[in-house]
Write a structure and sequence with these properties.
The chain is of the alpha+beta class. Helix content is 23%, strand content 39%. The chain has three helices and four strands; from the N terminus they run ααββαββ. The chain has a four-stranded antiparallel sheet with strand order 1-2-4-3. A hairpin with a 4-residue loop joins β1 and β2. It is elongated.
């Protein structure tokens, strides 16, 4: 008698597949912050770098974020100038996080081609 393995399937013993929403990876506070900064930049900035370091005091814990954003083109540079003006007082809505400090640390403005490079630093504290 000949045995054909293609006719006999092994039972699938793996866990049942979850729906797409359950498999979706949760975004980190840093990713949520980057998204909020892109919105504040009116969608006209590209994030060149994002560094995160843990931060803690006796009463609070969180992370310090340092980001470098690039605005290219006349309209983007105008959006960047607004970004610089509004960042320090902007009310962020990041669930579970409080933006305790937001500051522009460095600005490099070039005329040709029109370009604005902004380095900012934000301190996020865990709520609760």
């Amino acid at each position: 008698m000949h045995f054909d393995p293609s006719l006999h399937k092994r039972p699938d013993l793996r866990r049942p597949a979850r729906d797409h929403a359950a498999r979706k990876r949760r975004r980190t506070p840093g990713e949520k912050l980057a998204e909020a900064l892109r919105e504040l930049a009116q969608g006209r900035a590209r994030i060149l770098s994002h560094k995160e370091s843990s931060w803690a005091s006796i009463a609070f814990s969180g992370a310090r974020h340092r980001l470098e954003l690039l605005f290219e083109g006349h309209e983007a540079v105008e959006a960047g100038e607004c970004f610089i003006a509004f960042l320090p007082e902007h009310e962020f809505a990041i669930p579970g996080q409080l933006v305790a400090d937001a500051a522009v640390m460095e600005v490099d403005h070039r005329l040709e081609p029109p370009q604005l490079r902004v380095t900012c630093e934000l301190l996020l504290l865990e709520e609760g």
